[in-house]
Amino acid sequence: MSVRRRTVLGAGVAAVQVPVLSPGAGVVRAVGDGDGDGNGGDGGPRVTDPGAYLSFTSVGGAFPLVGAPVVVSADDHPGVVRVAGDLRDDIERVTGMRPGDTVARRVVLVGTIGRSPLIDGLVAAGRLDVSGVRGRWETSLQTVVEHPMPGVEKAFVIAGSDPRGTIFGAYDVSYGIGVSPWYWWDDVPPVHRDGVWVLPGRYTQGTPAVRYRGFFVNDENPALGTWAPAHFGPGKAPGYPGGFNADFYARVFEVLLRLKGNYLWPAVWGRAFAEDDPENHRRAAAYGVVMGTSHEAPMMRGIEEWNRHAGSGTDPYGGTGEWSYLRNPEALRAYWRAGIQRMVDQGFEGVVTLGMRGNGDTGLPDGDGIELMQEIIAAQRQIIEEVTGRPAAETPQVWTLYKEVQRYWDRGLRAPDDVTVVLTDDNWGNIRKHPSPEEPRGGGYGLYYHFDYVGAGRNYKWVDTANLRNVWDQLHQAHAYGNHGLWVANVGDLKGNELPTEFFLDYAWNPERWDFDRLGEWERRYASQNFGAAVAGDVAELLASYGQLQARRKPELLNRRITLSGTGAVVYDDEQTPFHFGHRELERVTEEWRELGRRAARIGRRLPEAAQDAWFELVGYEVAATANLYALREAEFTNLRYARQGRAATNDRATEAEQGLQRDLDLADRFNSGVAGGKWRGFQSQPHIDYGDVDRYGPNAPWQQPEKDNVALPDVLFPAVRRIEVPEAAGLGVSVDGEDDSGTLPPFSPYQTRPQQYIEVFNRGRTPFDYRVDSSVPWLTVDRPRGRVTQQLRLEVRVDWSRAPGGRSEGTLTVSGAGEPVTVGCVADQPSARGLRGFVEAGGYVAIDAEHHDRAVGEWRRMTGIGRTGAGMTAWPVTGGWAPDARPRLEYEVSLLAAGEVTVWAYLSPRNPALGTSGLHYAVSFDGEEPQSVDITAGADDGLLNVVWARNTSDNVNRSATRHAITRAGVHRLTFWAVDPTVVLQRLLIDTGGLTPTYLGPLESRRL
Going by C-beta distance under 8 Å and a sequence separation of 6 or more, which residues neighbour residue 361? Predict the structure, then answer.
């Protein structure tokens, strides 16, 4: 079938001989700008949310959808003909009645303006008004037409400005009647409806803000790589049965289009899209999907195509087999030429990747000389011109500034103006560079973003760990800085990252619809679509909590503590929890996950049996499995601590950790075997526990998933738990609250907010014993001063402030039992309450959550849930523009108990210098002193991904310090100054000498 040929990328560019689905190029703008009633400002249709024109109750003048045939012209694009069939299927899924496909008195007409005789006939007869839609990019119209043609009383018309507009319009109806985009990928059953009606009026979902919107299926071994060939059949390239075939990609294309995406980077881990099934490109064209290749795969050829056919000393093009333009240029040019020739011959719609990186997602093997990269891009564009017979500017192209490639840009290299320059995040969800307002491009800019990653720091591949509040902040910045050309997200296996993938594509379609304060609404809509309105509110709150808890730290990193040495060097310990025993931190974060698991279980029990598979796949598994992993890690690291102390309870904690590992395996087995009749067998196979186990799987263990010979290994506990010999005889042991078990309790204060101090009386043997605790002073009390210990008891220690003297006081507790008594030191500090105001020092520190300021000067945005423990504050707008002498600032009143030097720690979201300036700065001052400016990116390299950067991203916070001289005790004003935009402040900690290590920082101080 003939397909019209038109430019794919960039506004106002001349025609190019590749097939596309949109007849009109031009400036992308939303339908309906300008008039307050929601109608198109140019007479166009009303812009609505998906499916908002549908009703499940009869309304006067509405069109009854049930029983109406769905009719499409065979002359339309194959993707439109196909989507009409999907719409019939979806109506049947919801109502139980399958629509016919021939014209009747009431009919649904699906077609493309300028392509469908059905639609064009209505337009020519004056029966269908397509103003505000015709000529736009990927824009649809839903409207009811009275007496559209002889013999038809009423028609519901779904028309598109181009074939993809029609496809999106049809899938919008599917969404509106209750079919989840994930119905197949997550076995989501729709709610049954006896009737569905289309409301009178003209409706559209507008024109997308971002022209190309899609995702990258990547890092797909072992999960997707195991499951897909088993479910759909092996790849068709001889010798490569693990390839993904066209039946698999058909499911990928469908969900992409249901999400209103249009662009795909196919899987690359040992896979070659074009070779694994010769039908793959034809299937993409038939569905209407734009194909691309990843940042490391230029000229429409996956890197695996080279690897399969180039060996040591040879390749199919007469070269040396090296992936080196410096040493093997003729072979590479021939290889690239074949990729462009295939695109032209097969007639699929594609966006061509330019440039070159090393084989295996590494830097260029020939170094990073600008002249060489210029030569490569020039050669590639010459090939494009020679093969297409047209100027290179007429073929859509992208150059992705991933990792080291951004250095070329920073050093002045520019691709030709028609090329879309794709900017990237740092692989951990923090954008590295925004477009400069001073450097607009004809080809515009794009964004490559990550919800999955393999590489420096540590892989994160297992479950969704995206915090939508952080994702929104980054996507909003891209939008605000004018990045609208092409957005693509690395979604890993796709399944498991449904929520962030859907949000990414929704936001790319209409950023203005989803302001930060509407994220809860988006989550409720997502929850309702997949689980029903009755539980939508509770599910949305659960998902928001899940995202914030996951964003504290990737699950794969729960056995790594990162510290600084005495010289400031970053130190990794892969056999330690990042959370601390002090402040009961490890206990508290584990309990938060347990409570989240209980909430999820309660919601799950409210759902009908038919929804249980979808619930487990989309929410239940990731919550239960992560909660279990936290409990496993708590037991594991408590076991190791107990083993060092010789506690009788040591072996019980080892058993708990082992049981946690078995529960992890059982949950995976339920996913693989018990869900959807075994449909997902083999999918839940991603290791996530044994990272760092160098002895088991080699020197890459600190970052790479457990694997040998590129095959994933099943998880084991790492570090391994310890078992000890417990003697028969009783033996007294005492452990005090805190990280170092120093024998002295953390200081007491009437203003403290930390968890109550405690001692643990434990047994070193198997025989129980009686204990007694004696206090040296009357104001020091223990909740259970006498008792009997079998294994261990926790005793909370308090100060009776009505009996304690003012100022600093000391006392001791003496614990007696089986063996020598143990003495525990205690210090109480009771300052005068006179004049105290604001956040009050206690225990040698003040902890402040950024949102609790006393005064905000300038415009600030409170971003609930973006921080590891609460909200964040960021100066607004993200594009800055404030004068140096009028910088926004946040002011906090604090009461400090003594004069002296203090350290102020700012906890900030781990951002990069994305603004083209040197570093990313804030400033801090006390009272009237000169503000001290800090570059939060000092020492970090987001291109080389060095250990300073890895610490910031792994901990998901940037901790920066300033030191200040406090000349007097009393009330002071601490001021945080915005210097550069995009900085997000989460917390401020003032260390007056007593701040002990924690991962999240202590609980917020008391405020008077």
Answer: 296, 455
Q: In what order do the strands lie in the sheet with 420-424?
A: 290-291, 263-265, 212-217, 486-492, 445-450, 420-424, 397-400, 352-353
Position 876 pLDDT exceeds 90: yes
Predicted confidence (pLDDT) per residue in 922-972, tens digit? 999 999 999 999 999 999 999 999 999 999 999 999 999 999 999 999 999
Average pLDDT of the residues in 869-885: 95
Band of residue 33 on the pLDDT scale cut at 50, 70, 90: very low
- Asked if residue 32 lies in contact with residue 40, where contact means CB atoms within 8 angstroms, the answer is yes
Q: What is the DSSP string of 682-719?
A: TTS----S-TT-HHHH-TTTTTS-SEETTEEPPP--SS
Buried b (16+ CB within 10 A) or exposed e, 84-118: bebbbbbbebbbeeebeeebbebbbbbbbbbbbeb
Buried b (16+ CB within 10 A) or exposed e, 948-963: bbbbbbbbbbbbbebe
Cβ neighbourhood burial of 710 (10 Å; 0-12, 13-18, 19+): exposed
Measured between alpha carbons, how far apart are the two ends of the chain, in Å? 75
What is the chain's mean pLDDT, rounded? 94
Q: Indicate the SS3 state at residue 878.
A: coil
Find, among 915, 934, 913, the residue nearest to 977 by Cα. Answer: 934
Q: What is the pLDDT of residues 341-368, one digit of tens each?
A: 999 999 999 999 999 998 877 777 777 6
Q: Are 170 and 183 in contact (CB under 8 A)?
A: no
Q: Cα(670)–Cα(515) distance, rounded to whole angstroms? A: 38
How far apart (Å, rounded) are the C-alpha atoms in residues 523 and 90?
A: 23
Q: Side chain identity at 664, as an amino acid letter? A: D
The average pLDDT across 28-39 equals 35
Q: Are 875 and 915 in contact (CB under 8 A)?
A: no
406 touches 943 (CB < 8 A): yes
- What was the pLDDT predicted at 410? 93
pLDDT in tens, 425-447: 999 999 999 999 999 999 999 99
Is residue 30 predicted with pLDDT exceeding 90? no
- Three-class secondary structure of residue 197 per DSSP: strand
* Residue whose structure tokens are 């400036």: 27
Task: Provide the pLDDT for residue 42.
Answer: 56
pTM for the model:
0.95
Token readout for 408 is 């070329």
Q: What is the mean pLDDT of residues 727-737?
A: 97
The stretch 98-114 carries a mean pLDDT of 97
CA distances from 455 to 265, 362, 459, 696 (A): 19, 10, 6, 19
Q: Which residue has the tokens 């040698």?
A: 844
- Name the burial class of residue 258, with classes exposed (0-12), middle (13-18) and buried (19+) by CB atoms within 10 angstroms of its CB: buried
Tokens standing for 17?
């001989």
User: CA distances (Å), 382 to each of 317, 337, 379, 441, 717, in order?
Assistant: 18, 10, 5, 21, 55
For residue 839, count CB atoms less than 10 angstroms from its CB and return exposed for 0-12, middle for 13-18, buried for 19 or more.
buried
Place of tokens 């809509």: 525
pLDDT of residue 27: 27
CA angle 538, 541, 547 (to 5 degrees): 140
398 touches 351 (CB < 8 A): yes
Q: Distance between CA atoms of 261 and 496, rounded to whole angstroms?
A: 18
pLDDT in tens, 310-329: 988 999 999 999 999 999 99
